[in-house]
Amino acid sequence: MRNLVTGATGFVGSHIAERLIRDGEDVTALVRKTSNTGFLSGIGVKFAYGDINDLESVKKAMQGIDVVYHSAALADEWISPEEACRVNVEGTRNILDAAKEANVKRFVFISSLAVLGMRDHHGTPADAPYHKTGDSYIDTKIDSEQLVMDYYNKYGLPVTVVRPGFVFGPRDSKLIPRLSDRLGTSQFIFVGSGKNKINAVYIENLTDAIMSAARSEKAVGQKYNVTNDSGMTLEALVLKIVDIWKFDTPKKHIPKFMAYLVCNILTALARLTKAKEPPFITRTRIKFLSLNLDFDINKTKNDLGYNPRVSIEEGLRRTKDWMEKNAGRTVRS
């Protein structure tokens, strides 16, 4: 099978490409000429130079492709609605158009559990309604996911949507590195009690689900939630990091209303001054720190045979080992 991976120089995309190579598959990555392709080149990935917002380059890259893994997206929490739409929605439309024209056998779209809303979740299933929040990333992921499903319903394009929670593991530069940095410098503060459940998923478990989704006929036209299914709370996660990294245990808590008040003030000031970087506390970060993020993955288990084989604790140990061996080196798109 010939596979095309978008976003392959990023965290999730690089693991998709690596897994496909390990499985003996032919892999082409759609990359910009300015992208850092050292890792991908080292594992035998081929390159098609272009950009998801350049339809002609996408069509050229799509020639002869059997399966598309579309993981490219602007996931930054400090992006304009216009830029988010240009990349996440219109870029996805280009990939879909080229895939339809090339008559690919499967189109796997890497979405996000964020499309189900920035709110408390208690066993929310994959068929729950979308919930827009005004967040540029979340809202455009909803729009792009709906676009993917439209191509299935209107044109019969064989699509599958995979929605991970907070992904962590080797080569990540965000979740665990940022959390461990805060804990290591004694700057971490719980928002609320810390008893809220988290929707984290270790990267190898996610790639297991993605591969199963791409290869299962049952998955055509379906959407799947993917987490580690651990039932772990944020407090438990923090304590495991503290134990593995040998940090001091954080003791400070701030009420949710206070966190949102500070966030709203700082965000308004940052917008007013046209700051290039987000404030140290954002709604996305408060979501991870305070909301109950419990999602139902029974459909994923039943349809795909998904069974997260790497525990969060083991995943944290592997992440720490990689961080220590590769200090200062991350995979970036």
Notes on the protein architecture:
This protein has 333 residues and is α/β, with parallel strands linked by helices. It has a domain of 214 residues: NAD(P)-binding Rossmann-like Domain (Rossmann fold, 3-Layer(aba) Sandwich), CATH 3.40.50.720. It contains twelve helices and 13 strands. Helix 1 packs across helix 7. The C terminus is likely disordered.
Helicity range of the residues? 40-55%
Individual helix count: 12
Query: Strands of the largest sheet, in order across it?
Result: 3-2-1-4-5-7-11
CATH superfamily of one domain: NAD(P)-binding Rossmann-like Domain
Largest sheet: 7 strands, parallel
Note poorly predicted spans: 329-333
CATH architecture of one domain: 3-Layer(aba) Sandwich
How do you describe this structure in short?
The chain has 333 residues and is of the alpha/beta class. It has twelve helices and 13 strands. Helix 2 links the parallel strand 2 and strand 3.
